[in-house]
Amino acid sequence: GSGGRGDLGLMRQLGANAVRLYGNDPRLNHTTFLYEAQTQGLDVIVGISDFPYIQGADSCVNTNFNCYDQIKKQYLQNLQSGFLVKGSTTYHPAVKTVILMNEPDLKFFPVSEPWRFIKALLSAFDAVLDAEKEAGVQRIGK
Questions:
Q1: Distances (CA, A) of 85 to 16, 32, 65, 68, 98
Q2: Using 50, 70 and 90 to split pLDDT, how confident is the model at 2?
Q3: Is the pLDDT of residue 100 over 80?
Q4: How far apart are CA 97 and CA 5, in angstroms?
Q5: What angle do CA 36, 72, 102 make, to 5 degrees?
């Protein structure tokens, strides 16, 4: 079995077709979770943790909202920790969507200066693309 509590199976029984993860710890391996989600017929929408954006000592808040280095490092770890099928350059089939940033308007103040979260979001997007390139990702999705 899954070795877990059976939450994903219960969610599927209740009619869910996807699970959205708010964030994750890239130091942990996500392979077992993703395979269990796939077994249960659930798509996974992964999110990048708030840690590199606002919580870490070298967070984007401390680098003038340039998130490139922080996000590239974290996303490369995620790719190596289960987002990619082991031994391949393709995403795990359960991963359907990546949320680059949760609630940007609540992270980078003041909201009246949207350049802050726009700069953070664009630099994060560049970082994810470069992390995929460095990892050799060949195909995204189906």
A1: 24, 11, 32, 24, 16
A2: low
A3: yes
A4: 24
A5: 65
Instruction: Evaluate whether 89 touches 138 at the Cβ level (below 8 Å).
Output: yes
The residues, ordered by sequence, that sit 6+ positions from 68 with a Cβ below 8 Å of its Cβ are: 123, 124, 126, 127, 130
Question: Which range, of 19-23, 81-85, 95-99, averages the lowest pLDDT?
Answer: 19-23
Rounded to two decimals, what is the model's pTM?
A: 0.89
Phi-psi label, residue 113: left if phi above 0, alpha if psi -120 to 50, beta otherwise: beta
What are the residues facing 43 on neighbouring strands?
18
Residue 120's φ and ψ, nearest 5 degrees, are -60, -45
Alpha-carbon distance of 71 to 18, in angstroms, equals 24
Q: In the structure encoding, which two tokens stand for residue 89, read together?
A: 């350059």
